[in-house]
Design brief:
about 50% helix; 11 helices; alpha/beta
């Protein structure tokens, strides 16, 4: 299944830095058991690339992408490691070029209408709106006025609750990225995740 179809089904993109391999395994096991099909592993810590290679091999049933990719060298390294897609906090032309060369979806971040248009003009069918806690759901609603076919994933400060996620989906987001507020929230991760997915899939596109 393609990245876009998985996001349209799950409506969530879990993301975290795999700095601890054991913790990363536990998290991916929970995601996979819950039926999540895709996750983003960010390149923000020493050893993240090697851990990505290991996890990509151990979890062939998950579509794993690489986040916080800022250079062509990192883009090539993660593509070689088996990344299914690349993500950056903003449009990085050299990363976009590598993604095109390697045939990978590229999700750059955008925080304004102009940045969204630049990402779209660069050939990015999926764009990350970041930071969500600054932009707010009304920004998504306004963006989908002139761009009714916009496929956006909101990240940065999204509340990992059914109501918090619903606010973004109802505004027109394809999906939301959930990081620390999902993985470091109170209660058992599998229980919280199950509740979120149930609410999200009721809104599947």
């Amino acid at each position: 299944m393609t990245l876009e179809r998985l996001l349209a089904r799950d409506r969530v993109l879990p993301l975290f830095t795999p700095d601890d391999l054991g913790v990363a395994r536990d998290r991916l096991n929970i995601l996979q058991t819950a039926g999540v099909g895709v996750a983003e592993l960010t390149a923000r810590a020493p050893g993240a690339l090697e851990h990505f290679k290991t996890l990509q091999t151990e979890f062939p049933g998950l579509l794993l992408g690489a986040g916080t990719i800022l250079t062509a060298a990192d883009a090539h390294a993660y593509a070689d490691a088996g990344a299914a897609f690349l993500v950056s906090p903003c449009l990085v032309p050299e990363v976009a070029a590598v993604a095109r060369e390697r045939g990978l979806p590229y999700l750059p971040g955008a925080g304004t209408v102009r940045e969204y248009l630049e990402a779209r003009d660069a050939g990015c069918g999926l764009v990350k709106l970041f930071p969500g806690e600054v932009l707010g759901p009304p920004f998504v609603r306004a963006l989908t006025g002139p761009f009714p076919d916009a496929q956006v994933i909101v990240t940065g400060g999204v509340e990992a609750t059914r109501a918090g996620v619903a606010a973004w989906l109802d505004a027109g987001a394809l999906a939301v990225g959930l990081g620390s507020r999902l993985f470091e929230g109170s209660g058992e991760l599998d229980v919280r995740l199950s509740s979120l997915l149930d609410g999200c899939r009721r809104r599947s596109t």
